[in-house]
Amino acid sequence: MRRTLSTLGATCLVLILTASVALGVSNAHFVGAPTATRDDNTLTVSGKVAGLGNVDVITVTITGDVACINPGSKHPKAANKESFSFTSEEPVQNGKANFSETIDGSLIDPSCSPPMTLRFSDVEVTVTAVDGTFLQYSFPGTF
To answer: Which domains does the chain have, with CATH numbers?
Structure first.
């Protein structure tokens, strides 16, 4: 009886693992941490995702805030801060996808003129796919 239950349990485990592979269940993950770099008025968010299984495309969404800051490290008007959201679709090849998206902070309204400068904050990248993949990374600090 004990041998039958062990065999039955092993058979069920094999069936479950086989079904997971057949359904294309992914083990999606970021390869290293995504990066965010600022160059003048732009912020570029880049990264790599692997373990995507059989999906053809991922959706990358980058959100955050951009504010106009004066030389005293203050933003003088509430209107000088706005949230942004940028979404793109990136192709998946061999279960992997790279992304690199650039957000142009100079499009803030009203414009940020010298000596004031732009500051990006609360930046977050979210990766989703039709198979249920959901990855999120929040960048600490400001840029």
So the answer is: 26-138 (2.60.40)
Could you count the other beta carbons within 10 Å of the beta carbon of residue 133?
21
| Exposure string for 88-116, b = 16+ CB within 10 A, e = fewer | eebebeebebebebebebeebeeebeeeb
Enumerate residues 6+ apart whose C-beta is below 8 A from 34.
45, 46, 47, 125, 137, 139
pLDDT digit string, tens, across residues 2-44: 554 454 444 444 444 433 444 455 799 999 999 999 998 899 9
Q: Which pLDDT score, from 0 to 100, does residue 22 have?
A: 43
In this structure, how many other beta carbons lie within 10 angstroms of the beta carbon of residue 64? 23
Return the pLDDT at 5: 44
100 close to 35: Cβ distance less than 8 angstroms: no
Q: What is the CA radius of gyration of the chain?
A: 22
